[in-house]
Write a structure and sequence with these properties.
The chain is an alpha+beta fold and about 450 residues long. It has 14 helices and 18 strands. The longest helix is centred in the C-terminal third of the chain and has 20 residues. It starts with 12 loop residues before the first strand and ends in an 11-residue tail after the last helix. The protein binds flavin-adenine dinucleotide. Flavin-adenine dinucleotide binds next to strand 3, helix 4 and strand 10.
């Protein structure tokens, strides 16, 4: 193959050898694999500014990539150029209430940095091994989203390299059309190279309460009342397969800094807490934020971190949640979860949500329903993807939406329906900043 980029010099490296580009044809989902033509491991904004016009002139489509933790090829580019941002990972200006950070930095490294100054981003995803640019291109849901919205609702400004190779600074007041088309835009309007994010004082410690109910009704009723009451800073829940059947876990946490310690009996009152069955633990904020690291180490040990992960992520209107979960639970065997699977299930109020491309169901309360399932082989993974699609169709039929980081195949018509009234936000920005469609929409 002629390397059309060979006349360019980069601070990073351009690779075209299939052995070196192979990683970019994989992702956490492990279901699809689209070999790219080339991968630029960018080390500077200048690398990206230089490569985009050349890719455009040669009709080579471009896909930005963070940590590749999407599940169905969202960060892959068949015969295109993948721009790997993970080496663009510096933390820049930090003040008492905001930080500017390169898009390839992980949330883990950003938090490690801000905590040195006693500060934290408002919303953290459960797993911090994702990139700033990757979650800002998707949404970024976490246990504090009921209070602060998703991570895209908490971006103050972005630097974006657009198809013409220019770096544009955008925010809600400066080039707002670009800003709103990039947040939650899955890399279809340019490459985010830097983000400015708000910070708040970090709590020193976290009191985490886990309650294991025998029925989903108890879980959901308690989640709804806790959401309304606002007792906890962090609010989540999980459906867990156990040898004795499904168990429904409330997972909530109160943040504090000594000496302002919460009272356990107040935290646990009125939520069906049973001391002999349930748990209260006290952790540092860092231990809590990185709580999945231990699970990841375990899954790496069992090999499940490398198996296919056909994870669907759905958002449901609260009013439809009960009927919807009855439907999917009837459609689900323990064996469908894999050894370590679970279903995330938790509510959020939508008052703080406002990212146009992060598509929400109607209503002031919504539920995240995410099937974190592990497939033992490719055939099983395909069966699960088919089932995901069935769940998605059922969700849509009652006003639900997808959080499209997972493994639900989307057609062009699905994207149009998904974007709904926000279609114009993307279309107008594409017309202005990417008229030749250098950053195409990806389907699987
Ligand atoms: C174990 C695990 C736990 C997770 N937990 C959560 C969770 O709690 N909450 C949540 O919201 N999500 C969660 N996710 C999903 C994850 O946050 C998203 O898939 C996220 O997009 C992954 O970030 P990434 O850096 O891996 O992005 P990638 O997979 O590399 O990219 C995602 C998308 O963003 C685009 N993109 C990436 N970087 C840029 C950039 N700099 N500029 C423009 N476009 C870009 C890509 O082209 C692609 O379309 C989890 C995923 C895993 C595997």
């Amino acid at each position: 193959m002629t390397n059309v980029f060979s006349h360019l010099s980069f601070d990073g490296t351009m690779v075209i050898d299939p052995a070196e580009t192979a990683f970019a044809a994989t992702d956490f989902g492990g279901i699809v694999g689209y070999p790219p033509l080339a991968v630029l491991r960018a080390r500077s904004t200048a690398d990206i500014e230089a490569v985009l016009p050349v890719a455009a002139a040669n009709n080579i489509s471009v896909v930005p990539r963070g940590c590749g933790h999407t599940s169905l090829g969202q960060a892959q580019a068949l015969d295109g150029l993948v721009i790997d941002l993970t080496a663009l990972d510096e933390v820049h200006d930090l003040t008492e209430d905001q930080v500017t950070v390169d898009a390839g930095a992980t949330w883990n490294s950003l938090l490690a940095h801000t905590l040195q100054y006693g500060l934290t981003p408002r919303v953290l995803t459960d797993y911090l091994g994702t990139s700033i640019g990757g979650t800002l291109s998707a949404g970024g849901i976490g246990g504090t989203s009921h209070r602060y919205g998703v991570q895209t609702d908490n971006a103050l400004a972005l630097d974006v390299v657009t198809a013409d190779g220019a770096t544009r600074h955008c925010s809600p007041t400066e080039l707002p059309d670009l800003f709103h088309a990039v947040l939650g835009g899955f890399g279809q309007c340019g490459v985010i190279v830097r983000a400015t994010l708000p910070l708040i004082p970090a709590p020193a410690r976290v009191r985490r309460v886990k309650v294991y109910y025998p029925t989903i009704d108890e879980l959901v009723a308690n989640q709804r009342s806790l959401l309304a009451e606002g007792r906890f800073d962090f609010l989540q829940g999980e459906i867990l397969p156990t040898p004795g059947g499904w168990v429904y876990m409330l997972d909530v946490a109160s943040y504090y800094t000594p000496p302002h310690e919460p009272y356990d009996d107040v935290l646990a009152s009125g939520i069906g807490f049973v001391a002999s069955r349930d748990k209260i633990e006290d952790l540092t904020y860092w231990e809590f934020a990185t709580r999945l690291d231990e699970t990841v180490t375990y899954l790496e040990g069992t090999g499940e971190w490398e198996t296919p992960h056909p994870w669907p992520n759905l958002l449901l209107p609260d009013a439809e949640l009960d009927a919807f979960t009855s439907g999917i639970m009837a459609d689900l065997e323990h064996a469908d979860m894999g050894a370590s699977g679970l279903i995330l299930l938790y509510p959020m109020t939508t008052a703080a949500f406002g990212t146009p491309l992060f598509r929400l169901p109607e209503g002031s309360t919504i539920y995240l329903v995410a099937g974190l399932r592990f497939a033992t082989d490719a055939a099983k993974a395909q069966d699960m993807v088919t089932k995901n699609r069935r769940w998605y169709d059922a969700a849509v039929s009652v006003g639900g939406t997808s959080y499209p980081t997972g493994a639900i195949p989307f057609t062009s018509a699905d994207w149009t329906r998904h974007l709904g009234t926000a279609q114009a936000v993307l279309a107008e920005a594409k017309a202005r900043y990417d008229p030749s469609n250098l950053f195409p929409r990806r389907f699987a």
